[in-house]
Amino acid sequence: MAEPKENPLMEKIVSLCKRRGFIYQSSEIYGGINGFWDYGPLGAELKRNVKELWWNTMTRQRDDVVGLEATIIMSPEIWKASGHVDTFADMMVECPLTNKRFRADQVEPQSGTALFFESALEVSAALKNIKETLAIAAESGRQENIVASWPNIHADEAKAKSLIEKSGLSNHDIEEIEDRYRRTYPEHDSRSRGNFSRSFAVLIKSGENSGSAYKRAEEFYKKQGLLGVLFLAPARTVEVINSREFNPENGVKLTEPRPFNLMFKTYVGPVESEDNVAYLRPETAQAIFAQFKNVLDSSRVKVPFGIAQIGKAFRNEVTPRNFTFRSREFEQMELEFFIKPDEAVEAISGSVVSVSQLSTLNPQPTWGWEAWHKYWVEERIKFYEGIGLPRTTLVEYWQKPEELAHYARATVDILFRFPFSKRDEKGELMGEELEGIAARSDFDLSQHERFSGKPMGVFDDELRAAWAKLDEAKKAELSKRYFEARLKYLTKTGVEQAKAEKEAKEDAEGLAKGQYIPHVIEPSAGVDRLILALICNAYYEDQMPDEKGKMETRVVMKFHPRVAPIKVGVLPLLKNKPPLVEKALAVRDLLRPHMNVFYDDAGAIGRRYRRQDEAGTPFCVTIDFDTLGEKGPELQDTVTLRYRDDGKQDRVKISDLLPLLLEKIR
Ligand code: ATP
């Protein structure tokens, strides 16, 4: 994806986040630290609400999911088993001029003419090569080249004359070159170090002056230690279309991609040696696999069941960007949902229901991995809709076969259409990943079984009983399929053929006895990306009358009441009228045990409403003289309930307030 272009909406959002205390740059007083963000008072509440809603939906509201909270630093063996030590790398490219690094797949494609230089020549050496100098200069038609070697031409005037003629330069050109030479190199240093070979290329966009390319090349070669005036002539020029090989900021050709491991390394204990290396976890999921057996043995769960975890993850991203979207420290909400292999489902239920036959999304014993995967995609989309992200802002992206990890059977990414997302040909925002839902087969537990030497399989009574009743043909068919699946896993992970066959055979025999390694469906979401999506989705500017009825632009954060950082603002009409204040404090205390209340008595009531609109507070309760019964007993102990989105107001009895608000925020 491209580097973010200037995006006026994002600029407004980032500025509101800072101004209102949603998100600040980490360590800002020291100039900040790239890829790290802090959540201010409103952001912290928003984040807490989101995590709590996820936790409630995924664990407490279900019988089949339990929670876990594991450490951030774990045995480094875990990351060997998971493949992160060997393969958790992004391909990285570097600009040889500025040393800035980019993720190779995220460089914005560029088109234009690329000038490839193979070497640079210092001026006094160029003197010896005056013929070539002029010939190449003439060929390329670049006067800049001749500027650099101009003094040499003067030094060898007789020979130069014919060369100049050959080059086709007019007198006017020559005058111009002389003039430019004097201005460009007033303190010409004629030390010679000769010819310096090293490739360097610069892309010039159409309409751009080639002079900038020569300037970059000169900077580059001087950085390598060349002195004085350089003679530069491109060895070739190439037309380039949509190439990711050039730095979008200066056109310089980037280095060849090389892998860069994203894990943060540290040392455990006082000795900084290779034996003590540990990693900050790059995902929360692996702890779930590592503790799978403990959870199974210590809680009353049976496959299918899940283990959920929320926690920090760390990735040394090459190019953090798009505000908090790609950070180096972030939080994840992950579920590992363990299911029976399809062969076990078929043995028990007689068949595995296909996705096209799914008549309900209530889990059934006939569900294999495909149905469970579909189920979790739907559940997760429902979750997002339930916290205020309309279906139209989300995209369900099914990864193509070539995009899948080798062990994954299917992965759906749920994307949100961020303002900084790229647009398709119809001009619609394409979206960026909020969550990935992967069907990961039995890869993870199998890896930990192999690396730790501890069994990760489960024993399933139901399967054992069902297997005994199968006819021989069915047994043979299911055994064969299971054997083949296990063999594929083992050989893909490098187990030598004979050993793999032996192990796969044992696994298939185990299945007949009711044993298997559970498969897993993994919905893995990022908290920070979701917070950013909620903020982007909530941001509105509209027109509302001020206190005098004059229309003004207001900024309003239309958070769903479930996630809103403050649920209700309690506002006494005047702060210097003790009966109003007393009543308002009583309302605050009535609501406070049940929701986040903000008490505000400062300034005009209209200003106070606007402040709450910007904070995204869905309701405001105003205590006025009617509340005190000054207009008559029928209004006594009623308050104004004001709705954020349309500014409408209702008169509500204080005694009705709590149930009414609770219903709206749950
Ligand atoms: P991406 O392709 O965007 O780097 P990923 O596919 O590597 O993401 P996963 O490893 O599947 O991401 O992580 C699961 C979730 O964790 C992502 O969907 C995202 O919400 C979140 N996440 C991953 N990396 C980051 C990051 N650098 N900053 C913020 N959130 C992240």
Task: Offer a concise description of the structure.
About 40% of the residues lie in helices and about 25% in strands. The chain is built from 22 helices and 27 strands. The model is unreliable at about 125-130 and about 185-195 (pLDDT under 50).
Describe this structure in words.
38% of the residues lie in helices and 23% in strands. Helix 7 (143-155) runs antiparallel to helix 8 (157-167). By secondary structure, the chain is an alpha+beta fold. It starts with 7 loop residues before the first helix and ends with a helix. The strands form 8 sheets. Strands 3-13-14-20-17-16-15 form a 7-stranded mixed sheet, with helices on both faces. It has a 5-stranded mixed sheet with strand order 24-23-25-26-27, with helices on both faces. Strands 6, 7, 8 and 9 form a 4-stranded antiparallel sheet that branches. It has 22 helices and 27 strands. Bound molecules: adenosine-5'-triphosphate. Residues 283, 315, 317, 326-327, 330, 332, 433-436, 524-526, 528-529 line the site of adenosine-5'-triphosphate.
End-to-end Cα distance: 37 Å
Any idea what the radius of gyration is? 34 Å
What is the average per-residue confidence, as pLDDT, rounded to a whole number? 89
State the secondary-structure class. alpha+beta
Largest sheet: 7 strands, mixed
Number of E-state strands: 27
Bound molecules: adenosine-5'-triphosphate
Measured as a percent range, the helix fraction is: 25-40%
List segments where confidence is low: pLDDT < 50 over at least 5 consecutive residues.
124-131, 187-193
Looking at the structure, what is the overall shape? flat
Helix tally equals 22
Lateral strand order in the biggest sheet:
3-13-14-20-17-16-15
**Beta-strand proportion:** 15-25%
